[in-house]
Amino acid sequence: MIEHIQIRVFRAPTPRPVATSFGIMRDRPAVFVRLTANDGAFGWGEVFANWPAAGAEHRANLLIQDIAPLVLGQPSDDPAGLWHRLTRQTHIRALQCGEWGPFAQVLAGLDTACHDLAARRAGLPLTQSLNPDAAKSVPVYASGIKITEAEVEVDKARTQGITAFKLKIGFDMETDLAALKTVKADLKDNERLFTDANQAWDAATARHFMEAAQDLGLGWLEEPIAADAPKTDWASLAVLKAPPLAGGENITGTDGFETAIANGHLSYIQPDVAKWGGVTGCFDAAQKITQAGRTYCPHFLGGGVGLLASAHLLAAAGGDGLLELDINANPLRDNLLPEGTLHRGTFHLPDAPGLGVETLPDSLSKFETLTLEAKA
């Protein structure tokens, strides 16, 4: 049974703010959760905490003060069963306060930790516990590249052997298009260019961009409009076919992903393991995405635990998806990855059991802002 929960919050300063069309991140947070069972087995998970600015500490307190009593004493050998049970048990609590996102994110981190624990106990890497025939490495693309800094950041990604780049747009239409044309003209034959508007536009503005970008050969346009925009708005963009549409980080629930697949508007579907579902929900969604002939590309912009979980999920799901790798400096991610993990544009999965994380390195202690615990 689960007898101990520890949650640790970190905030690392950024050399420069990370800008999106809807706001600016002025530091890099990470919320790591560790579950320990009565036999000593343990597992790590990560809870989404990028937004709002004070979200990391809130998620930690939500877990310990509200959700922990539902977790302690529960079996540690059935991650999916625990996640489904907690989803039911917290429904009214989330409804009462309107905080669907925070509850889902905490449950996602708990689920990943429980899967890590179970795989570690079995002596298997997480990906092998999900799919014995899974690949041991996955290709990556560089993300988090602000359009006005694209030339420099794309060159930096190239030095790591990366050949696919996602640029953040949605700031100024004409500036975005001009910069995209410049970057496109400098691409090598084997390189690909993606864009992410972070829900910046209405349907008419997004259509204008898509029509103006027809000749750029973009690999995808991610979240050009709000994730919850009417189905007719998404359909009006999908009919243009180029660039193909991507989204999924702001879709939640099994029904939500099934609807997205059925609607057919998204060519690339991007669940986030730290925002909803954990390994249980996201692996189920990933299988349905690939079976429907779409491409599963896990979204992730956080610390090292969540990135490793995303890599394991992508390898286990198969298909031709890419792993998102934020190009911006982040010690809460980089210091958790084993040496040699990223080589020539390929992310190599650790051979160690579970996710491959034993302990958090001491180098992170200077970034720690809060540690909370609960015991059975």
From TrEMBL:
It comes from the Bacteria. One of its GO terms (molecular function) is lyase activity. InterPro entries: DgoD-like, Enolase-like_C_sf, Enolase-like_N, Enolase_C-like, Mandelate_racemase_C, Mandelate_racemase_N_dom. Keywords: Lyase. The keyword Cell cycle does not apply. Residues 147-244 form the Mandelate racemase/muconate lactonizing enzyme C-terminal domain. Transmembrane segments: none annotated. PANTHER family: D-GALACTONATE DEHYDRATASE, D-GALACTONATE DEHYDRATASE-RELATED. This is Mandelate racemase/muconate lactonizing enzyme family protein. It comes from Roseovarius bejariae. The lineage of its organism: Bacteria, Pseudomonadati, Pseudomonadota, Alphaproteobacteria, Rhodobacterales.
